[in-house]
Amino acid sequence: MLRRALHVVGLAVGLTIPCLADPPSAQDLLRQAATALSELPAIRYQARGEADGALSLRVPKMDGTVTLVRTPAGENLKLRLDAQVVPPMYTKPVTLQVASDGQQIYLAEHGARVFVRRELPFGNLLLNNVAPLLITELIAPRPFEREVAAVSLQHVGSEKVGDAECDVVHAVFTRGGDEVRWYLGKADRLPRRVERIIQTPLGRSTITTTLTSVDPKPSVDEGQFRLEKPAGFEEPVFAQPNAGGELLPVGADAPDWTLKDWNGNDVSLKSLRGKVVLLDFWATWCGPCRMSMPGLQKLHEKYKDKPVAIFGVNCYERGPVDAAGFIKSGGFTYPQLLNGSEVALAYRVNGIPAYYVIGPDGKVLLAYSGFSADRERQIEVLIEKHLPRPPG
Fold first, then answer.
1. pLDDT band at residue 319, thresholds of 50, 70 and 90?
2. What is the largest CA-CA distance in the chain?
3. What angle do CA 27, 132, 81 make, to 5 degrees?
4. How many CB atoms lie under 10 A from the CB of residue 174?
5. pTM value?
6. Average pLDDT in the 361-377 region?
7. Peptide bond preceding 121: is omega within 30 degrees of 0, i.e. cis?
8. Rounded CA separation 23/48 (Å)
9. In the sheet that 336-337 helps form, which strands lie side by side, from edge to edge?
10. Beta carbons of 185 and 168 less than 8 angstroms apart
11. Quick one: CA torsion of 301, 304, 309, 314, rounded to 10 degrees?
12. pLDDT per residue as tens digits for the range 90-102
């Protein structure tokens, strides 16, 4: 009715008033963006990644340059990333380099002077260290597939990111669950920002990646997707990937061990029989390991007076480190077991962080690698389910 009225008024006064176009739908915007991305064999961008809310003390701030190359569906990711990273609890940035040639993934952490080289796909866990800068949707075979299938998908307006005018698309994946907001350039439909809204046990948080420049036609040199160990860097020794790269299966008997805690006392798994045991395999150089620590501290405080034992198991370090001091400097009080690399090998730990929940009968209830807020919730549910109750 409004358009017809405007048209009539225009005729009455002798003016020509164009018809108002319908705004593009969220599905159309994502379809246009997917088409624009599919035409790019590679893309390079500069970006800033950071988190607010519950994860602000867990996710490092980082600025860097990322090059992503499109590979055939099913092949491993090919990338190069050079970043300045400020980990939580730190003030000075450290240089971090990550490269993947599709066969191996390489990481050089210049602060701790650590170099890591892992075969793919096992090495993909190393990408957790740079997750705030990575937008793998840019070279995915079917970008935005998850968004299109979301329970809610809306075009929520326009906003400027840097010099680019953008349409903003908001997707809600599950009711009360995770969400994402894409800022798509009006001129080229390439993303200029993505906000990943995550529900964690500590509350709601947003991880934001903002692109400050985009090069859709970068020059690519195959040599840039490999790294050599810099002089003076240490290379930690990891367990060799086992068949299928799997941790111990649920229901398996957890191997017994005896380790020193941070007070010099012997602790064995056998001595913990009758309790639910949570083991977190970690190292001081591991970014995602640091991200998991506040959640472990929260569980420790909740269950410290219950038949539950929560331990960090320090392993795969580059050399002598004060692991206990590292934990205490962050204000964490959950106990630590030291020199745990041999135990990590027995538990088939190929990437860290890695977590095991062991039942009161000594059998594995859960095993997984990598930081995940959803897994933290699963751990708490398992503890409650298997928590020994007093008789009566």
1. low
2. 93
3. 105
4. 11
5. 0.65
6. 83
7. yes
8. 30
9. 336-337, 308-314, 276-282, 354-358, 364-369
10. no
11. 40
12. 678 989 999 999 9
Rg (CA), the chain: 25
Say which residues have a Cβ less than 8 Å from residue 354's Cβ, sequence separation at least 6: 247, 280, 281, 344, 347, 367, 368, 369
Enter the tokens of residue 172.
């809600």
DSSP sequence for 336-348: EE-S-HHHHHHTT
Contacts of residue 57, defined as CB under 8 A and 6 or more positions apart, other chains included, come to 88, 89, 294
CA-closest candidate to residue 64, choices 230, 210, 215, 191? 210
pLDDT at 237: 60
From 312, 346, 343, select the one nearest 327 (Cα to Cα).
312
Is 66 within 8 Å of 139 (Cβ atoms)? Answer: no
Q: What is the DSSP letter of 376?
A: H
Q: What is the DSSP string of 228-268?
A: PPPTT-B----PPP-GGG--PPTTSBPPP-EEEBTTS-EEE
Q: Tokens in use for 223?
A: 């040599």
Q: Give the number of other CB atoms < 10 A from CB of residue 241.
A: 16
